[in-house]
Amino acid sequence: MTTVQPGGGSMVRRILLGSQLRRLREGRAITREDAGYAIRASESKISRMELGRVSFKERDVADLLSLYGVHDGTEREALLGLVREANKSGWWHSFTDVLPNWFQTYIGLEEAAALIRTYEVQFIPGLLQCEEYARAIFGQSRPALAEEEIERRVSLRMRRQSLLMDPQGPKLWAVIDEAALRRPVGGPKVMRAQVQHLIDMSEHANVVVQVMPFRFGAHAGESGAFSILRFPEQDLADVVYLEQLTSALYLDKRDDVDAYIQVMERLCVDSLTPGQTVDLLATILKDR
Q1: pTM of the complete model
Q2: Under 8 Å between Cβ of 238 and 229
Q3: β-strands 226-230, 239-243: how paired?
Q4: 53 touches 21 (CB < 8 A)
Q5: What would the mean pLDDT of 226-252 be, rounded to a whole number?
Q6: At residue 11, what are phi and psi to the nearest 5 degrees?
Q7: Contact (CB, 8 A) for 237 and 254
Q8: Which of 27, 15, 24, 29 is nearest to 63 (CA)?
Q9: DSSP letters of 79-95?
Q10: Rounded CA separation 106/116 (Å)
């Protein structure tokens, strides 16, 4: 289990750069201790760099590349360019006044993902919430939020959703427990808007929505809500995201990830098909 610490720049690029530096070091049979000595740092600093948990200094990376025998100008520039990219601030840093530190990492991962698979029990997934629904959710936060902060949080959520409108954006595959559709968040008008929004979003080619119906009974998602993120870069492993009240966990060990993938695939098989889901949503909309 890995608890990823937030920081400036792109978490994904840091992870990618770190994995490449580790491969170069191991290819030359250089210990972390010796690598740390070369940049006036500790062995643990090298370990954190290779895991992408700290920001990178361009001078440190340049010295490590020299130590690892990387002298080709093109290869060096590609890796040093990755340092500069990794240290750039993402668009979400303008929302740090309302964005918990532990959630900044997730937004960075979400931004870089090729596929996001998510299972939700109590609420509609954030990437599929309409404005009115999101506002109602934030209105129930404890401690209570000021009106201005609620609007800032709604704006952030809507900005995240623009990913799904981008032709180069990720594919979203969401399984939603029927309980989330029946929970009257914000009242009938808000729920009608939300159900219609789900119907509209399901028409997008890069969005798949399925509902796990009440009538199925007990199912594979007994552990609760989770998300699995997959990236286009082959060097990056899938990441499982588990949100808690005041923090989040990021699982990247192969056995952990495989267990959640198996649960997600079982949920997809046992849930209503996307077509059946739209029929259910239309029925719910008509009954409200």
Answers
A1: 0.81
A2: yes
A3: antiparallel
A4: no
A5: 89
A6: -60, -40
A7: yes
A8: 24
A9: HHHHHHHHTSPPGGGGG
A10: 11
Question: In the 3-class helix/strand/coil scheme, how is 104-164 assigned residue by residue?
Answer: HHHHHHHHHCCEEEEEECCCCCHHHCCHHHHHHHHHCCCCCCCHHHHHHHHHHHHHHHHHH
Hey, is 249 helix, strand or coil? strand
Token pair for residue 49?
Answer: 């760099």
Strand order in the sheet with 239-243: 207-212, 171-177, 115-120, 226-230, 239-243, 248-251
Distance CA 222, CA 269 (A): 15
Q: What are the tens digits of pLDDT across the range 52-74? A: 878 899 999 999 999 999 999 99
* Residue 200 token pair: 């509209």
Q: Tell me if 12 sits within 8 A of 236, measured CB to CB.
A: yes
- In the chain, what are the domains? 11-86 (1.10.260.40), 91-287 (3.30.870)
Q: At what angle do helices 58-67 and 73-86 cross, to 10 degrees?
A: 150
Is residue 116 a contact partner of residue 229, using CB atoms and an 8 Å limit?
A: yes
pLDDT tens by residue, 71-99: 999 999 999 998 988 887 778 878 888 88
Quick one: which H or E segment has residue 226? strand 226-230
The phi, psi pair for 250, rounded to 5°, reads -125, 110
Nearest to 33, CA basis, from 46, 44, 43, 23: 43
107 within 8 A of 94, measured Cβ to Cβ: no
Amino acid at 59: R
Tokens representing residue 81 in the block: 């360019």
Residue 116 to residue 133: CA distance in whole angstroms: 21
Separate counts of helices (H) and strands (E) for the chain: 12, 6
